[in-house]
Amino acid sequence: MEDIFRQGEDHDRQEWEKFRDIFESAPVGIFQSTIGGRFLRINATLAVMFRYDSPEEMAGAVTDIASQLFVDPLQRTDLIRSVLETDTFARSEVLYRRKDGSVFIATLSMRAVRDDNGDTAFLEGFVEDITERKHAEEEILKLNTDLEQRVRNRTAELEAANSALKKEIEHRKKAQGEITRLNLDLLRQKAALETVNRELESFSYSVSHDLRAPLRHLDGFSRILEEECASKLGEPGRDCLQRIRAAAEKMDTLVNALLQLSRMIRTEIDLHPVDVSAMAREIVEELAKSDPDRNVTVDIEGGVVVMADPHLLRIVMDNLLGNAWKYTSKNNDACIEFGTTEVTGKRACFVRDNGAGFDMAYAGKLFGAFQRLHSEAEFEGIGIGLATVQRIIHRHGGKVWAEGQVGKGATFYFMLE
């Protein structure tokens, strides 16, 4: 019999320990109180909720729950009446006052616990702080109200704009017809322009080709005169012949340049991935071998690969790097750089130098055939290189442009589609 009683006591103790663990660790405030308004038991969560340091402090400080904790003491009176009448949990939203005087909203669930005689022994309940939730609900309500008003306003605007939209649609239909007509005119003009360009290219090629024969004759007869009649011509005559031959050679160079430019227009584009960095290094090595006495600092960005015609891109890089090498020839600390940069969201390649540079006021002349911003006495050349560069880049569907400053160098950019 003693064992049975001991087992019963152990069971009761275990049940009490379970209750105590739940009571102390619950995420909501739990209490037991008298009907008169004093606390019998409080968990730590409730004490923290009311800004007390401990349950003991709160139980000792609060002697009248209704007047000290309820903003409206009658709420507690009404709730007690309800629980005494129903013998079930009564639930209500309550405005509470904390120890520091601040106010918060909570949900109070409370019931009456009766003794064996059916009399009310004490009250017990749960308190959950819902201040943040209430604020969130109020904010949502406000947002919904604002949204509804915006919808009404927008609906009114759309209805008001409906008539104007119909008129706009009619106007656009008429405009579309006009655009179609203009596009047909543009296509006809484009076809005519392409025909003219082909004829001009053919004419340029034919003229350049046909000029070579008389130039060869001029140079050949001048050479014969110089060799066979030099003693009869005298110094003035020999000087004139040398001038004639020099002019013929220059004219032959110009004709060859014209032919090269014409070929650039007629050459078919064959696109492949091209390692421009490797190409630039190869060109610079060739330039350095041709002018070993120069000391030039070269910076080439690695890993630059583009889709282009390898042969035509080589001509572009030959011209740009060759110009950079040439126009830094009078600079003791010459620097040449090849790299890439982002322009309007697209990658552009550039060749930069710190050479002679140019006045931006004349930038429009840079890419014209036989246009030069420096005299031949300063820097040799015939002014066809940049025109060739521009035509090749345009053949690739790209664009080329330049920036510069006199005496401080130039940067040439090109972008390929």
Automatic annotation (TrEMBL):
Molecular function terms from GO: phosphorelay response regulator activity; phosphorelay sensor kinase activity; protein kinase activator activity
Family annotation (InterPro entries): BphY/WalK/GraS-like (IPR050351), HATPase_C_sf (IPR036890), HATPase_dom (IPR003594), His_kinase_dom (IPR005467), HisK_dim/P_dom (IPR003661), HisK_dim/P_sf (IPR036097), PAC (IPR001610), PAS (IPR000014)
Keywords of this entry: Coiled coil, Kinase, Membrane, Phosphoprotein, Transferase
GO biological process, one term: osmosensory signaling via phosphorelay pathway
Family annotation (SMART domains): HATPase_c, HisKA, PAC
Cited SUPFAM superfamilies: ATPase domain of HSP90 chaperone/DNA topoisomerase II/histidine kinase (SSF55874), Homodimeric domain of signal transducing histidine kinase (SSF47384), PYP-like sensor domain (PAS domain) (SSF55785)
Enzyme Commission number(s) of this protein: 2.7.13.3
Ranges for domain Histidine kinase: 206-417
GO terms under cellular component: membrane
PAC domain sequence ranges: 90-142
Domain of life: Bacteria
Coiled coil: 133-178
CDD domains, per the entry: HisKA, PAS
Catalytic activity: ATP + protein L-histidine = ADP + protein N-phospho-L-histidine
Protein name per its UniProtKB record: histidine kinase
Gene source species: Geobacter hydrogenophilus
Organism lineage string: Bacteria, Pseudomonadati, Thermodesulfobacteriota, Desulfuromonadia, Geobacterales
